[in-house]
Design goal:
The protein is mostly beta strands. It contains no helices and 14 strands.
C-alpha cells in the first residue's frame, strides 16, 4: 500500500497511488522535476492496515530540450537560437562557448528562443541548453553551432593592368 503526497500537509494529505505485492513500485504518474514524498504501509491478508512508514522524497529527472537550432549566417548582428519545450520545465538556461572560450551561462528564460546579440563576425559559437524547474536541472542538451553573416574583406580591384576589364577579388 503506497501513498504519495506533499510534505506540507503531511501524510494525512497523501493519497494512495498503488497496491503493491513486493518491495518496490515505479511511480510513472510524476512530472519531471517535481518533488514527491512517499510513505508505505503494510496491509495484512485479512485487510488490517498498519501504520505509515517514515517518508522519503524523490523526483523524476528533467530532460534537456530538444530541437535546438542556432542560425547559421542568417543575420548580420545576432544568432537566433530556438528549441522545443521540455516536459516539466519552468525555465531554460542557455550556455555559449567557442573555440577560445569555455561554455558559459549567458541567458535564463521561460521562453523558447534567445537572440544572442553578443556575437562577433567570423566566430562560430556552440550553444547548449538545460531545462530548469526550481532547484532541479537537466543535463546539457546536444550542442548546436551558430554564427553571424560576415562581410567580405580584402576587396582588391585591378589598377589599369587589364585592357578589357577590371578584376575585383576579395576574401570570403
Amino acid at each position: 500500500h503506497i501513498k504519495a503526497g506533499h510534505l506540507r500537509g503531511g501524510p494525512s494529505y497523501a493519497v494512495k497511488i498503488a497496491d503493491v505485492v513486493g518491495t518496490n513500485h515505479n511511480d510513472s504518474s510524476t512530472t519531471p522535476g517535481a518533488l514527491y514524498y512517499y510513505w508505505v504501509r503494510t496491509v495484512s491478508t485479512s485487510g488490517m492496515i498498519g501504520d505509515l512508514s517514515d517518508y522519503d522524497s524523490g523526483y523524476q529527472a528533467l530532460l534537456p530540450p530538444q530541437g535546438i537550432l542556432a542560425s547559421d549566417g542568417v543575420y548580420t548582428n545576432q544568432v537566433l537560437l530556438t528549441w522545443s519545450a521540455a516536459v516539466g520545465a519552468f525555465n531554460y538556461e542557455v550556455y555559449r562557448g567557442n573555440a577560445s572560450l569555455p561554455l558559459t551561462l549567458v541567458y535564463n528564460t521561460d521562453g523558447l528562443e534567445f537572440h544572442d546579440l553578443q556575437v562577433a563576425e567570423g566566430v562560430t559559437y556552440s550553444y547548449q541548453i538545460r531545462t530548469v524547474r526550481g532547484q532541479y536541472a537537466s543535463a546539457l542538451s546536444t550542442a548546436n553551432d551558430g554564427f553571424v553573416l560576415g562581410k567580405p574583406t580584402g576587396v582588391n580591384a585591378s589598377q589599369g593592368t587589364l585592357a578589357n576589364r577590371v578584376l575585383v577579388s576579395w576574401t570570403a
